[in-house]
Design goal:
Number of strands: 25
Radius of gyration: 28 Å
Strand content: 15-25%
Number of helices: 10
Shape: elongated
Length: 494
C-alpha cells in the first residue's frame, strides 16, 4: 500500500536523484532517527532531518588521513551556518517562511568544539558521528524547517521536495566553496591537538595550557555549559605561564609549530590560589575542556588534557560499599558497614572522600578539586575537627604515595596550610603577570598570615610553628597568574 501524508513526503525527498556534487546518503538514512519529517507543535512548520553525501574528496584533497578530518568538517558546517541568514537557498536551515522561525535557531548556533569524548550539545549541528568525512566524501546530517503543507497533496509534496532539493544544492555550493588551504589549516589544528594529547604521557604530562589561551567563556541560550560555550568577548585575558613555573616548550606534531605553556606533570600536586572571582574555577574548567578538540577562535586550541580526568565534589548521595578509609578512621552514626565498604546517605565530605579514592583506584591521570564545590573540612583541618578524619592536606604532606599515579590540581582561596612557604612570587602589572624578585620564606609567609588574622580580629588557632615534613621541603613555587587586576596564584608541590 502506498504511503500517504508525511510518510509519502519523506519517501519523495529520499528519492531525489541529486547531481554530481550531492546525493541523499541512503546508507546512513535511518527512518525516525536520521531521516524524518514531523509537524511542529503548532502544526505550521515541517521539521526535517536528512542525511546528504557531498562528493568533495576531502581525504584525497588533503592527504593527512582520517584523524583530524573533523576539523575540516567543522569549518564547513560553520560556514554554512554563517551564510544561512543571507543565502535564499539556505532558508530552510533557519526556518524561513515558518510562523515561528526563532524556534529553529539551534540549527545555526555557532559551535567551536570539533570533537569530544563526551556526548555534548546533542541538539546542535556539529561535526561528529553523523557529520564526518570518509573516502566517499563529506557526510552531513541536515536539519531545518519549511512551511507545513495543509493536506500533503501530490502537488504540495512535490513543492516540499523541490524546496529541499534547492536547499541541498545551496549547501553543496558552500561545501565546495571553502578553500583547500583553510580546510588544511583546520585539519592540522585538530590533528595537532589529537596527537599532542596522545603524546602527553610520554612527555611526563597530563595537561598542557598553552600561552595565549583565552579560557573565559560566554554562555548562550543553547550553549550554557562551559565546555560548549564560546569565548568571552569582553574581558578575556590570555594565559601566560610565569617563568618561575618552568614553562614547557613543545613542538606540535602535525604543524611543527613550537608553542610554550604550563605543563601539569604526572603525580604532581598543583595549587591554584587567589581571592574571589579571580579565575580559579575558569582555569580548572579550561583544563577539563582540554579533553575536547577546539576550532580556531575558540581560545582553547592550545589547551590539551589526557582523557580520564576526574573531579571530586561535596554532594549528599547514597553510598553502597564505598571505600573511604584514606580519610576516615571510623564511620559516623547512620553509616553502616566499615571504612572499606561504607553504605548509607553520606555527608558532603564523605562522598567527596569516596570520589577521591575512586579516582585513585581507577588510576585516573588527573583529579580536580574546586573549593567552591568541595567540603572544606576534607581539605584542611579545623579546630573543631576530630582525629577520626584526616584532611587531604595532611595526607599529601605525610604520605603522598596514597595518591598513587594520580596528579592533583586544587583551587582554593585559603591555601595557607597547603603552601606554608614559597620561594618565587609573581605580581600583576597592567593586567599581566610579572615575576617578583622578592623571596618569601616559611617564616615570612606565616608572619603575613598571622598579621592578617590580627587585622581581622580573628584568632589564629594554629599557634605553633608549621610543620613541613622532610619529603616536602623541596621548593614550593607560587608565581601569580592573573585573570584581573588582583590575580591568582599558581603553586606547585612536587
Amino acid at each position: 500500500m502506498a504511503r500517504t501524508g508525511l510518510d509519502a513526503c519523506l519517501d519523495n525527498v529520499l528519492a531525489l536523484p541529486g547531481d554530481k556534487r550531492w546525493a541523499i546518503d541512503k546508507a546512513h538514512a535511518i527512518e525516525g532517527v536520521t531521516a524524518y519529517m514531523v509537524r511542529s507543535f503548532d502544526g505550521t512548520a515541517l521539521i526535517f532531518a536528512l542525511p546528504v553525501l557531498f562528493r568533495r574528496p576531502l581525504l584525497s584533497e588533503i592527504p593527512l588521513g582520517v584523524q583530524g578530518a573533523a576539523g575540516a568538517v567543522a569549518l564547513i558546517i560553520e560556514q554554512v551556518k554563517r551564510k544561512a541568514g543571507s543565502d535564499a537557498g539556505l532558508e530552510p536551515l533557519v526556518g524561513k517562511g515558518t510562523r515561528f522561525p526563532h524556534q529553529f535557531a539551534a540549527f545555526t548556533e555557532p559551535y567551536t568544539i570539533v570533537a569530544s569524548p563526551a556526548a555534548l550539545a546533542s541538539g546542535l549541528w556539529h561535526a561528529g558521528l553523523r557529520n564526518f568525512a570518509d573516502p566517499a566524501g563529506i557526510h552531513l546530517l541536515l536539519g531545518g524547517a519549511v512551511p507545513c503543507p495543509p493536506d500533503f497533496t501530490p502537488g504540495e509534496i512535490s513543492t516540499v521536495a523541490e524546496t529541499l532539493s534547492c536547499f541541498f544544492e545551496a549547501v553543496s555550493a558552500e561545501v565546495f566553496s571553502v578553500p583547500s588551504p583553510d580546510l588544511e589549516a583546520a585539519f592540522l589544528a585538530t590533528l595537532d591537538q589529537q596527537l599532542l594529547r596522545e603524546s602527553l604521557p610520554s612527555r611526563g604530562l597530563v595537561s598542557f595550557v598553552g600561552d595565549g589561551s583565552r579560557l573565559a567563556r560566554r554562555c548562550t541560550r543553547f550553549r550554557c555549559f562551559f565546555r560548549t560555550a564560546g569565548p568571552e568577548e569582553q574581558v578575556n585575558i590570555p594565559f601566560t605561564c610565569p617563568p618561575g613555573l618552568e614553562p614547557c616548550e613543545i613542538e606540535l606534531p602535525a604543524s611543527n609549530r613550537t608553542v610554550t605553556g604550563l605543563g601539569v606533570r604526572k603525580r604532581e600536586v598543583f595549587a591554584v590560589a587567589g581571592s574571589n572571582a579571580q579565575g580559579k574555577t575558569t582555569f580548572l574548567e579550561g583544563i577539563v575542556a582540554g579533553m575536547d578538540d577546539h576550532a580556531a577562535g575558540d581560545g582553547r586550541e592550545l589547551v590539551v588534557t589526557v582523557h580520564g580526568l576526574c573531579s571530586a565534589e561535596a554532594l549528599n548521595c547514597q553510598l553502597t560499599g564505598a571505600d573511604v578509609s584514606m580519610f576516615f578512621s571510623a564511620l559516623p552514626p547512620g553509616i553502616g558497614g566499615t571504612i572499606h565498604a561504607a553504605s548509607g546517605m553520606a555527608s558532603g565530605s564523605m562522598y567527596m572522600a569516596y570520589q577521591v579514592q575512586r579516582a585513585i583506584a581507577r588510576g585516573a591521570p588527573l583529579l580536580l578539586i574546586d573549593e567552591d564545590h568541595a567540603a572544606p573540612n576534607l581539605l584542611v583541618r579545623s579546630s573543631l575537627q576530630t582525629g577520626e578524619v584526616t584532611p587531604l592536606s595532611e595526607i599529601l604532606c605525610r604520605d603522598r604515595g596514597k595518591m598513587g599515579e594520580t596528579a592533583l590540581v586544587v583551587a582554593a582561596c585559603a591555601l595557607e596550610r597547603w603552601l606554608p612557604r614559597r620561594t618565587g612570587s609573581c605580581s600583576l602589572t597592567g593586567m599581566s603577570p610579572r615575576q617578583s624578585t622578592a623571596a618569601c620564606s616559611a617564616g615570612k609567609w606565616r608572619h603575613r598570615w598571622k598579621r592578617w588574622h590580627a587585622t581581622c580580629g580573628v584568632r589564629d588557632d594554629v599557634a605553633g610553628p608549621l610543620h613541613v615534613p622532610g619529603e616536602m621541603k623541596e621548593t614550593i613555587k607560587v608565581p601569580c597568574r592573573a585573570r584581573n587586576r588582583r590575580g591568582f596564584f599558581l603553586g606547585k608541590v612536587s
